[in-house]
Amino acid sequence: MGVRFFHIICLVVPCLVSCQVKPYAPPPQKALVEAVEISVKEFAGRPEVYARVQGRLTSGAAQLVDSPQRREGRRIYLDVMEQTPRGSDLIIDLDHSPGFERIVPIDILGLSAGTYTLSVNGIETALEIPMPQAETVSSTEIPASSHLKNEMIAIEDMVLVDPVPSNP
Question: Structural domain tally of the chain?
């Protein structure tokens, strides 16, 4: 009797454990975007582009997650995504749902100067990438009487010398 009960328990318990509903995070969805503004800044002569995105989340529990980007020709697509934890209630009236504002750097590496279209969750706006500004380098001679202290030597300029002299 005891052995039979043990076998039944060994068969039933794993089935009950595997049949339980496991918590999971639902896949991210696009957030409701209401406005997009573009700003172009410069860093070390290179343009940097940012999108200021404003909108609303679908629930008070939703959170913004990664914003993937992709390119197709002269179009740049930015998907502002949100994720709502399982079991949270959606707010029916989107006018009272929480708002958000996010500044997202736009990946323009490898793009030539010109006009592009930025599409953020379906809202499109023109984007102008300016020509990179070359930094001007002035060649000023250092007077012979001046001395540099704590001079750094670039690795490219160093020559390795064999510490053990070779016998002739």
Answer: 1
